[in-house]
Amino acid sequence: MKKTTIALLLAFTAALSAWGQGVTASFAAEEASVPYYQMGWDTPEEFATWTYESTSSSTWKQGNRSQSFSTIDPGSTASMVLDYSDGQNEAATSPAIEIRPGSTLEFYCYASGIYLVYGAWKLYAIVDGTSTLLIDQFMWAQDAGYDGPSWERFTVDLAEYVGQQVQFSFVYQGDYGEDEAIDGFKILQTDAGDDAVININEGESVHFKDLSTGNVTFWNWTFEGGEPASSTEQHPVVTYQRAGSYSVTLTVGDGTTTATKTRTAYVNVHAEAPVAHVGLPDGAYLSPWVMMFVPVNVPLTFKDASTGNPTSWNWTFYGTDITASTEQNPTVNYLKEGTYGLKLEVANDVGASVDEYVSTAIQAGGEQEIWNIAPEENGDLMMMEMGWYGNYAGTNWLGIGEFAEHYDAPLTDAQIKQVNVYFGKTTAVSTDADIEMKIMTAGEDGMPHEVLGVTSVKAGDLAYDPTTVNATEFVFDEPVSVPAGTDFFAVVGPFPNDNGDDIAMLLCRRDLGEKCTGYHFVYDEENYEYLETGNWYQNTDDPLSLAMAPVLRFTAPSPSSSIDQPVVDKDVTGHTYYNLAGMSSSTPFNGMNIVVTRYSDGTSSVAKLMR
Question: What is the span of the domain harbouring residue 85?
Answer without folding.
Answer: 33-190
